[in-house]
Amino acid sequence: MSSNKAFNPFEMAQTQFDKVAAILDLDDATRQILRNPLREYHFSIPVRMDDGTTKVFRGFRVQHNDARGPSKGGIRFHPQETVDTVRALAMWMTWKCAVVNIPLGGGKGGVICDPHHLSMKEQEQICRGWVRQMAKNVGPLNDVPAPDVMTNAQHMLWMLDEFEVIHGSKFPGFITGKPVGMGGSLGRTEATGYGVVFTLREALKDLGIRLQDTTAAVQGFGNVAQYAIELYQQLGGKVICVSSWDENDHCSYTFRRKSGIDLRELLKITDKFGGIEKTEAKKLGYEILDGDAWIEQEVDILLPAALENQIRQDNVNKISQKVKVIVEGANGPTTPEADKVIQEKGIFVIPDFLANAGGVTCSYFEQVQSNMNYFWEKDEVLGKLDVKMTAAFHAVSDLAKKRNLYMRDAAYVISVSRVAQACKDRGWV
After folding, report:
1. pLDDT digits (tens, 9 = 90+) for 8-35
2. Hey, what long-range contacts does 344-347 have (CB within 8 A, 24 or more apart)?
3. Which of 133, 213, 239, 253 has the fewest beta carbons closer than 10 A?
4. Residue among 114, 39, 129, 116 at smallest CA distance from 81
5. Residue-wise pLDDT tens digits, 401-418
6. What phi and psi, each to the nearest 5 degrees, are found at residue 262?
7. What are 81-136's pLDDT values in tens digits?
8. 39-184: which CATH architecture?
9. CA-to-CA distance for 106 and 333, rounded, in angstroms?
10. Any idea what DSSP says for residue 179?
11. Distance between CA 188 and CA 193 in Å, rounded?
12. Do the domains 189-355 and 39-184 match in fold?
């Protein structure tokens, strides 16, 4: 996806926070404690590579705030990972847990590496090495990791196994996103994408638009995008394009079919990282466009579900006048400068930490199930998820209407005030 080297996601997260701190008139101490992580860990992970050499990878864990409960947040493997990205994501996790009102705080982890170029054995060593560095500072009662970009259930299971070996006991609630049958929750793979569509469904009801009459353009074709498309299409919507990263060309492409994409046929030609095979897509009648073309489509709904910093000052004016809703499946896809333009255009935005909170909500359900060693059926999990996401959306929407706030600001007001109150109640500020 396009990126701007000067972009700093943590500065963006702080800018968003500062705006809401002013709306809430927070005192200086509360601002300071919420504006920065409570603690962070930087460490080296030495790995014996398959060719016999030793390579050292850099790892991170940032615990932004745990006033409302144990830190919660994914671990991503990415060659461009930076500690500022991890700090921003940890902060957004704090707000995400608070906006859906689950008793967790925000954390995030990462390793600078590219799984595309690592064997499974090398990836396993990175996972176990990460846990060895963090074993005293994570756990079911203080910080619960989960999968994120380019990590999956297998990575989580290796991490769980290492944690249990170190501590000499069983702790299935230490980590979420585990394989079903090994303490994972049914419904977890669908949760983030489905949660995005639950909030979209409610927004369209509020706006008096029939979902069956809408079209959408989606950026990204990983887990979140795939399941969001699945549910959106089941409810009657039409997706006309998706964009996906091409590992060979090191750029992204947009795959468009104006009559509507066929999710099943695209999945057959997609690799495990969400990359769509161009030649095969052409044979199936898809136009191959530039990676940024998704944002220019004449659709009702834009669904960015890739990385941060995707709707920016330099491309926000390419958004069609037809677009009525932007639902942010990704974390931090819209910069504050672009946000101002979107607000002026009158487009309804479902902000990232509300729209994509289905993942952490279901992670919380998995944690609860693991800790009590009693597991729910899939319909029960997705039913509980729908209830949580719908309630969270309406709390934000009602506040936005009542106080004439932009949806992002209303979501922030709810989440920041909940976390600030928890810090005050504990006597931290």
Report:
1. 999 989 998 999 999 999 999 999 999 9
2. 345/319, 345/321, 347/319, 347/323
3. 213
4. 114
5. 999 999 999 999 999 999
6. -110, 105
7. 999 999 999 999 999 999 999 999 999 999 999 999 999 999 999 999 999 999 99
8. 3-Layer(aba) Sandwich (3.40)
9. 19
10. P
11. 10
12. yes
Q: At what angle do helices 83-99 and 378-403 cross, to 10 degrees?
A: 90
How many other C-beta atoms lie within 10 A of the C-beta of residue 200? Answer: 26
- 108 part of the active site: yes
Q: Within a 10 A sphere around the Cβ of 328, how many other Cβ atoms?
A: 25
What was the pLDDT predicted at 249?
81
φ/ψ (deg, to 5) at 218: -120, 130
H or E stretch covering 198: helix 188-207
User: In this predicted structure, what is the pLDDT of residue 3?
Assistant: 44
What are the domain boundaries of the chain? Answer: 39-184, 189-355
Return d(Cα 212, Cα 200) in angstroms, integer: 12
Tell me which of 5, 19, 55, 108 is the catalytic residue. 108
Higher-confidence position of 306 and 247: 306
To which residue do tokens 């109640």 refer? 425
User: Which listed CATH number (3.40.50.360, 3.40.50.920, 3.40.250.10, 3.40.50.720) goes with 189-355?
Assistant: 3.40.50.720
- Cite the DSSP H helix spans in 2-119: 9-24, 28-35, 83-99
Tokens for 69, please give them.
């409960």
Asked whether residue 225 carries a pLDDT value surpassing 60, the answer given is yes
- Two tokens, residue 161: 């196994």
In the numeric block, the tokens 């906006």 are attached to 99
